[in-house]
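Hey, I'm writing a tutorial for new members on how sequence and structure tokens pair up, and I'd like a real worked example in the thread rather than a made-up one. If someone can provide the structure for the chain below, I'll link this post from the tutorial.
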Amino acid sequence: MKEVRWGVLGTAYIFERDTARGMELAENCRLTAIAGRSMEKAEAFKERYGFEKAYGSYQELLDDPEVEAVYIPLPNTLHYEWTIKALRSGKHVLCEKPLAPTAQQAREMFRTAQENHVLLMEAFAYQHSPYIKEIRRVIEEGTIGEIRYGEAALITSDYDRKNIRMRKDTLGGCTYDVGVYALSLLQRLTGETPKDVRAVSSFSDEGIDLFTSGILEYPSGAKAHFDCGMVLATEKNSSLDRFQIHGTRGSISSVSFAFNAPGTLSYRLRTFDGLDELRTVEVPHNYCLEVEQFGRCIQNGEAPYVTEQFSTDLAATVDRVLQSIGYEA
């Protein structure tokens, strides 16, 4: 299998914790180059993860003709700038969520990709999970009928105030950091974008939302509720992940579930005609699935699973949530 030559812009924690292992496992990924704000840190990552080259600036990596695709795990405020630069350098880009601070910027990023004949995909590893795909298939088959109500939540630990998630200047806050998971899951499972969005938040002294709760109303008439927050025990890396979908014929609810979790996940399917089943799905490393899928898009012309339409619709919903709570990006 031919490998895609990857470069990584930045030495972010999410790369260390998750994406690095996914790239190592991916059969079509070659770790070609790593760039950091300092050569010392880039060299350390080169040795730790087996990159072939290290660069002391992001632009040096983009100037490397051997790099075909770039993964961008930078702070939210830098996604737009460096994705645009990478696309204009002729690199395919996998950019961490949220793709951009606003829907307008997200649309500009995709337009730049088209103009430069390269691909752009937002990095939502969990969206590639066979668990999520199975639940979507069950819904599409009509097993629970027409959707009437859904809810999703992701609530995590809070962090030291120096963490980029907790700072306004790096567009921190729970909607940007974890709310996009709950909102994107509802978008995937309902197959709709909301026509009405209302939300409320609890804010920190720094002006970022620590807890946000909202209601969504869809063109079909379905309703949904989402919660997101960074309010659990500080720096414990704990989380509350849940969802449920109710239809005119039954319901699906998470049992053993966490966004991006590998392993044996489960959900309960109930229907009004008496079916009550606990179903399990074996899930491999989601970040590996994501990297391999984007690699197939580059090499084989496969369509990105997280599409332009999906990402720009989601960004528009996030815009409306932020506007509702009074968060100014």
